Amino acid sequence: MYLVKAVLILIFLQCITQTLALNALNNYGNSVYPDRCVVDMGTSVVLLKFGESVKLDSLPCTQIFCIGDGWGMLETCDFMRPDLNCRYTSFKDWEADYPDCCKRNMVCG
């Protein structure tokens, strides 16, 4: 039952973030912490339960969403082509929650 819930949530997330994000399914499991996603942040270790997420400060607008049993979805912004004769500059709000942090400033001309 637990695996079925995890698969359904994964499918749901994939559908919602299809146009906004690049996703990668990774195993963050550790036998010392069963049923948790274990994320090494460099200076600390974050233990995530099913449905919890953590934003990675070292990468712009990137988070790990725990889908259960050590498996997590690494989510980051998708490449989106800017308007004709325009280019993206900085992120509008790097500190915003995912996926709002994906919005970028655009310069045209």
UniProtKB/TrEMBL annotation:
Compartments, record wording: Secreted
ATP-binding is among the record's keywords: no
Domain Single: 37-108
One annotated Gene Ontology cellular component of this protein: extracellular region
Keyword Secreted attributed: yes
Pfam family, one: SVWC
Signal sequence bounds: 1-21
Record's keyword terms, sorted: Secreted, Signal
The protein's name in its UniProt record: Single domain-containing protein
Biological source species: Drosophila mojavensis
Organism ancestry: Eukaryota, Metazoa, Ecdysozoa, Arthropoda, Hexapoda
